[in-house]
User: What shape does this take?
Amino acid sequence: MVSFNPLKTSGAIVFELPTDSTDINLIISGDWVLVFQVKIALDNLLDRGKDTTQKDEIMDEAMADAHKQMIDLMQQYS
Assistant: This one.
């Protein structure tokens, strides 16, 4: 009997699917040591709309860049 302690994680993976998709399954496979598969039926898919998972990261990068430019300008003209 193989026993293992799963690692906890959270997150999101976005897939684009045809609107008429049926009988969709998520298959999770083990690695080369633990050769097994888990099949999860995805019966209740929800349309979450447009993927905005990276929107905050892009805005954070833009704000950090603008802040750096402002500091550079203030040092240049002070």
